[in-house]
């Protein structure tokens, strides 16, 4: 039996135990996991150093190596994350609906764990701990498949977490790490219907596309974000500049940052130059439509391929539009249904934008950078769903649950 | 452009209009559709007669032809179904959550239409109307791909429905029928990411398997039901007999009927013979485990393949088990997470069964035949989900909605 199938089967067995763990049992385990990470910080950092060294030999950039890096302080922060998850309310076992039918049947709808969650992600080893913590809190087992660049770190971290679980009521097998670095192990996970209940990809566009295109297991698609800010004719110039600058520059590498700025022509005439100056001063490369290039000679020409690209970088498309309709059409064509914003003082235009834009999060007069489980007050985030089924937008703990109907009778049969 | 892509694109355009239709506008349209079906009953019956004639020439069984048949009375009943959907509450536009963050951002979570729903189903033309009604009520467009055996009926019905819509505020293009009878048109639908937001298959196991295995569009899996009834040692003999008989015989062709009866050995010794007699008298073929065959000589030997088959017919597997654990293990191995039942007077055993069985609907002392949107009080049913994401069990109107976050600020940026 392959590593993937064997570990998924162990996770499924453990899920039947996880399913009946109480909130206290789960929280105790999360705290034990946090303590173990802190206690073992030195051995984790040593394993991480192997990944760093190999990465440096392979020519990995220093910025990526920094994201991969684990030290005592970072391990402490990751452990604190587990402690915070322990303090969140348990979404499992809630009565969501309850009633008696005329025939006397009592029907109760309760929240239950999903079962076994497959996580497929890239480098950062903190995701290993975060995902394990969120899945266990919600009574699930998890099969982790991280990127090979962090394999030594992930192996050590999972060993520490499983050892910690062995001292608790939770089954250690509820956390599984796939160590096979080949892409075939991902492909196998994607077809494990009957063992995995859902697969959640976290990573770049190509990782997510591979999962969506090849999975037969249900998927929660996350993350791809081609986000727009549209500045309406009546947008407040200072607010518009602040929001556009924040959405692009505050953290360009994340999915809720802005990739394209759409500007009403009447606003652009008076104010686009100063917004562009501020962006250029922050080393943002501007790619513009013809009208933008006429106003901003520093801009390169933007192509449809540019509008369809999630840069995650200091690059911004700017397109001047005739009106809200043209902005809506652009977003409909190039948006990924993640986060979209209108800056306007006109309530009617704002209402129309909020209604018409089909995205997980639609903003009026605020930066798209707020699309985040913590910013939304969930206390945790397993990812940001860009699909419409099951969960949409930032996913907190309830996104890791399903439901079940319990029906009690006294011999009812159907006539 | 292919028929599928062209019609899906029209449906997507129409979805942007559907999305802003009010409850009154949608209900008026449903009533207009109902009236049109009644007014056009003769032309619909004439088109249906072409399907019936062709089916009879092709050797279709009379029972299948009966399911295909449309006459004035049946068309009237289908129209009444639309009128009932019009009376149901509109699940779209509900405020699901709302609050203000410390930074002053107002975040509101509302229910919205899914967008464009692809329905892939088999023969019965009533599904064409039911699905169109449910999708339109929830503000969606629908792309219908029915079985070729009902193509003349479906074509006429959709023509009538679209003509009716043309007299209302709703866009006629919100209802699309794929007429291409080739399997390739189904396969094309399954890959239409960006145009279809979800695909819902309704039909036999092979249709559903094809959809699950080949779709890149998100799927709501429905219908496959290998349902069990477990009679515990302490089960009331008369109640157990009634529930088992009802679950198997009342309507064997549907997904919530029983395929395997599990019986505690202590119960079997005293009561299985009389239950078997009742089933045999109703012309149920029994396939049993070794112990069952010893008690019921009329039984054939049951194989694992039998336990894994959804008969939808007058055939029943019976297996005698040592205890609840063995029953749970059997259900875990062969169940399809649809509907499972325990018959027992022991509250502890019942509680354990309800907790441990991982299925959409778990029953204590009632027939599995109740798993149904109408029986659950939803007033409608788009199908019974056997997956854990998005919706599980009978799906009413809310299963055809998604959510969206609306965020209003006054210039908030992220620090």
Automatic annotation (TrEMBL), chains A, B:
GO biological process entries: L-proline biosynthetic process
Pathway named in the protein's UniProt entry: Amino-acid biosynthesis; L-proline biosynthesis; L-glutamate 5-semialdehyde from L-glutamate: step 2/2
Keywords annotated in UniProt: Amino-acid biosynthesis, Cytoplasm, NADP, Oxidoreductase, Proline biosynthesis
Subcellular location: Cytoplasm
Pfam families in the cross-refs: Aldedh
Main location: cytoplasm
EC assignment: 1.2.1.41
Domain of life: Bacteria
Residue stretches making up the Aldehyde dehydrogenase domain: 3-280
Reaction(s) this enzyme catalyzes, per UniProt: L-glutamate 5-semialdehyde + phosphate + NADP(+) = L-glutamyl 5-phosphate + NADPH + H(+)
Molecular-function annotations in GO: glutamate-5-semialdehyde dehydrogenase activity; NADP binding
GO terms under cellular component: cytoplasm
Residues that span the membrane, as ranges: none
Function noted in UniProt: Catalyzes the NADPH-dependent reduction of L-glutamate 5-phosphate into L-glutamate 5-semialdehyde and phosphate. The product spontaneously undergoes cyclization to form 1-pyrroline-5-carboxylate.
Family (UniProt): Belongs to the gamma-glutamyl phosphate reductase family.
Protein name: Gamma-glutamyl phosphate reductase
Organism: Paenibacillus nasutitermitis
């Amino acid at each position: 039996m392959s590593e993937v199938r064997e570990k998924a089967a162990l996770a499924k067995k453990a899920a039947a135990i996880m399913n009946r763990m109480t909130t206290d049992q789960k929280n105790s385990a999360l705290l034990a996991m946090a303590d173990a990470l802190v206690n073992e910080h030195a051995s984790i950092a040593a394993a991480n150093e192997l990944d760093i060294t190999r990465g440096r030999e392979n020519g990995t950039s220093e910025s990526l190596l920094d994201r991969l890096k684990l030290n005592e302080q970072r391990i402490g922060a990751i452990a604190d994350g587990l402690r915070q998850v322990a303090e969140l309310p348990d979404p499992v076992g809630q009565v969501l609906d309850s009633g008696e039918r005329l025939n006397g049947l009592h029907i109760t709808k309760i929240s239950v764990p999903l079962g076994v969650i497959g996580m497929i992600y890239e480098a950062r080893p903190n995701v290993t701990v975060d995902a394990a913590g969120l899945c266990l809190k919600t009574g699930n087992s998890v099969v982790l498949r991280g990127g090979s660049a962090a394999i030594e770190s992930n192996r050590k971290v999972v060993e520490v977490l499983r050892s910690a679980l062995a001292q608790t009521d939770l089954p250690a097998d509820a956390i599984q790490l796939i160590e096979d670095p080949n892409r075939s192990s991902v492909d196998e996970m994607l077809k494990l219907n009957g063992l995995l209940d859902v697969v959640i990809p976290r990573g770049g566009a190509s990782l997510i596309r591979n999962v969506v295109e090849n999975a037969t297991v249900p998927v929660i698609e996350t993350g791809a974000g081609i986000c727009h800010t549209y500045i309406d004719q009546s947008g407040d110039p200072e607010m518009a500049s602040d929001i556009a600058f924040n959405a692009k520059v505050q953290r360009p590498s994340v999915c809720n940052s802005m990739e394209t700025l759409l500007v009403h022509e009447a606003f652009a005439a008076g104010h686009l130059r100063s917004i562009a100056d501020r962006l250029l001063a922050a080393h943002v490369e501007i790619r513009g439509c013809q009208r933008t290039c006429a106003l901003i000679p520093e801009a390169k020409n933007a192509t449809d391929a540019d509008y369809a690209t999630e840069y995650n970088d200091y690059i911004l498309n700017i397109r001047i539009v005739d009106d809200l309709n043209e902005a809506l059409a652009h977003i409909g064509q190039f948006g990924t249904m993640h986060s979209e914003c209108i800056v306007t003082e006109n309530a009617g235009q704002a209402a129309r934008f909020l209604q018409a834009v089909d995205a997980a999060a639609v903003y009026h007069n605020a930066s798209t950078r707020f699309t985040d489980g913590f910013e939304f007050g969930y206390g945790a985030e397993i990812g940001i769903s860009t699909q419409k089924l099951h969960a949409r937008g930032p996913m907190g703990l309830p996104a890791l649950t399903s439901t079940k109907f319990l029906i009690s009778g006294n011999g009812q049969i159907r006539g």
